[in-house]
Amino acid sequence: MLGPRFTAALAFASELHGSQVRKGTEIPYVSHLMTVAALVLENGGDEDQAIAAVLHDSVEDQGQFLTLKRIRERFGVRVAEIVDACTDADEYPKPPWDERKQAYIASIKQKSPEAILVSLSDKVHNARSILLDYKYVGENLWGRFKGGREGTLWYYRELVDAFRGRGPSRLFDEFEATVAEIERLAKEAAERNRAKQFYYYDDWRTAKLTCYRCGWTGTFEDGRTEYYEQLMDSSCPACEKHPMLAIVSYPTMEETEANWEKLSDIEKLHFSRKKELLNQFATTCLKAADQLPDIDAKKFSLEWDFLIDETKARVTVIRLNGKEIWRELASYEGYGRFEQVAEILKQKYGSRLCDLIPTPESETWLYGDKLTAQDHVDKVRDSIRKGTSFRGHD
What we know:
It is built from 15 helices and ten strands. By secondary structure, the chain is an alpha+beta fold. The chain folds into four domains: 4-189, Hypothetical protein af1432; 195-249, no CATH class; 251-284; 286-386, no CATH class. The strands form three sheets. Strands 1-6-5-4 form a four-stranded mixed beta sheet, with helices on one face. A four-stranded mixed beta sheet has the order 9-8-7-10. Strands 2-3 form a two-stranded antiparallel ribbon. A hairpin with an 8-residue loop joins β5 and β6 (244-249). α8 (113-137) runs parallel beside α10.
């Protein structure tokens, strides 16, 4: 069982790290320390290890203000030894990044089982965070890390090899699988960078593509084509792993108007209709809190619905207990618009707004084909329920 010592360690960690946030986010750093402690406890750790988990970055991040002596005096020798083993630098300024990481990897063989559990739990949560953020921010993620893309990938692969056979197998298996998924996404990104890049009005339909792996040649439409919100791509149909060969970006409104003579009559008709709808949306959409009606209820949830109105227009409707309070033209894959509207609703109603609930009828247009759309909407709803700020994605 956890006692007053653990509570004191949490308070001490909050004091030390209270002003810090996770790299590239607005997430309080203390959340990482609490998650590491939870992983330690879930994998058989005791109170000393849990205390070390919430203090494992204290010397490294706050070393100029704190020494192991203070930890030893407040929480005991065993806690101090674990924290020391989890510290990759206790001097200021810190040694170069690659030097510190190489030394930390080499030290894993000498770490005690108690320290291994805390260290591995720390790396599991870091890897989880990298994977989740990578899916949302893509290659911009690597700018958060001193090792950059290549250094960070190298470090985590070396950690997997160093931790193999150490610590709880369930925890290690998650770490290995998470790092493997990060590597897979990084490899896909590298292949996209090798692919030919076309604008929509380039001559991509007849351009010759050659697979850099097997030598297959063909046109864009001869390959394995996939269609997404902002682009389409073509991959080699002959290779087992189908490396990406070309990417075509869909045109902006400005690019379409600049290439008007290249459009067919049908394309011109579709473009004119799209422009008309965008202009209509821009003039009628929710922009500010004062457009919304006052609501007297102390606490309430709103409903996000979809319908086709009498003019055949596709419309998003927001309701309170079945009564409409707002409507506007619906956006396909409108999860981003969901966040924008939720922000305005929060500005208007504050903490009285408990949730914004999508109806089953709204889901097709709200999520579309975007695999991460529902997760995005869930995060927005969770922030409403908790009364916290939104984290932008995509």
